[in-house]
Amino acid sequence: MAAFVLIHAELGLGGLILLVTLPGQKRYRKVYQAKSGYWYYNITGQDGRAERQVLYLEGYPSKEKILEHMKRLRTDYCILRCEMEGKQYEKRCD
Question: Is the pLDDT score of 85 beyond 80?
Answer without folding.
Answer: no
